[in-house]
Amino acid sequence: MSFWKKLGAACLVVSMLSVAGVAGATVSGVWTKGSGPGRVASVACPGGMSRLGHSFNEHMTIFDGDPAIKIRNEYTVAKDGFLVEDIDTGAHAGTHLDAPAHFIEGARSVDQLAAEEFVWPVYKIDVRGKTFENGFIQWSDIRDYERHNGRIAEGSLVVLQTGAERFWGAEKKRTDRKGNAANKDDFFDFENPGFSGDAVQKLFDRRHIDGVGSDAYGPDAFSDENFDATFTTLANDGVALVAIANLDSVNVRGDVIIASTVALLDGSGFTTDPIACHGLPRQ
Fold first, then answer.
1. Number of domains, the chain
2. What is the span of the domain harbouring residue 175?
3. Running DSSP on this structure, what letter comes out for residue 253?
4. How far is the C-alpha of 242 from the C-alpha of 39, rounded, in Å?
């Protein structure tokens, strides 16, 4: 059994140094961040852990116009004694994190984010089967959800479960203008709801969140050609976690998501394989 599997089986407790000045926070006894020099942050996962990233491969869903994914074995064990892949990808391929610099000129890039900015208490809003006017989830809808499911904690990543995940990889054979596989599929034909820009702004102003996420290719409504939810998030120096998989494993409240990326210099974001740390019984 591998080291990580042993840790998971033992209900992993991770301790890591925090940055000086980080405010203390506790989420259902799962996550605590110390404050001040030398304090530590700890994460306990009594409910186990889950991976929330889609498989990274040449045939996965990518956004229209993004670079095609190409993966080749540069070296193989059979021929060379070791395996090394040559990978061509865009920075926003598959499950990925958007940094503020993705939309905002002069904003922080992914390499400028501190370690604790990749760790959040998660608040999941399940909107599967629900309809909203023009597809926009408004602040009143969020407040109604809170009345039934509890208040959003400060510093949260507020994640939408729209049902888009079930269309991931349901590929329609298409090619781009150069004849390359374009990897466009039913995922982008699904009319998923998303946050309005105003709702996101109120989440930052009134709940002091750190970012948003979705199982769709962004927190925006299918109908929103201006990507207001993403723009508003990044304009508030927040992050967006995009195309999240396996959201059925995540509780509405009480879990933590960890989603660090490659520290791409001046990067607008990068692919990630988020880890969910479950603190409450699975719903």
1. 1
2. 3-277
3. S
4. 31
CATH number at residue 173: 3.50.30.50
Burial class (CB in 10 A: 0-12, 13-18, 19+), 200: buried
Residue 112's alpha-carbon distances to 93, 100, 264, 276, in angstroms, are: 20, 10, 9, 23
What does the alpha-carbon distance between residue 44 and residue 52 come to, in Å, rounded to a whole number? 18
What proportion of the chain, given as a percentage, has pLDDT over 70? 78
Within a domain: 28: yes
Strands 239-242 and 211-214 come out as parallel
* 38/231: higher pLDDT: 231
pLDDT band (50, 70, 90) for residue 176: low
Residue 23 domain-assigned (yes or no) = yes
Q: Cα–Cα distance between 202 and 140 in angstroms, integer?
A: 10
Nearest to 217 by CA among 7, 16, 64, 22: 64
Distance of CA 41 to the CA centre of its chain: 21
Q: How far apart are CA 238 and CA 234, in angstroms?
A: 5
- Closest alpha carbon to 217 in 199, 239, 194: 194
The CA distance from 250 to 257, in Å, is 9
Residue bearing tokens 């909203």: 132
d(Cα 231, Cα 226) in Å, to the nearest integer? 8
Residue 116 lies in a domain: yes
Of 27, 45, 48, 25, the closest CA to residue 35 belongs to 25
Per-residue pLDDT reduced to its tens digit, 223-255: 999 999 999 999 999 999 999 999 999 999 999
In a domain, residue 283? The reply is: no
Question: What distance in Å separates the CA atoms of residue 180 and residue 176, rounded to the nearest whole number?
Answer: 6
Q: What are phi and psi of 14, to 5 degrees?
A: -105, 130
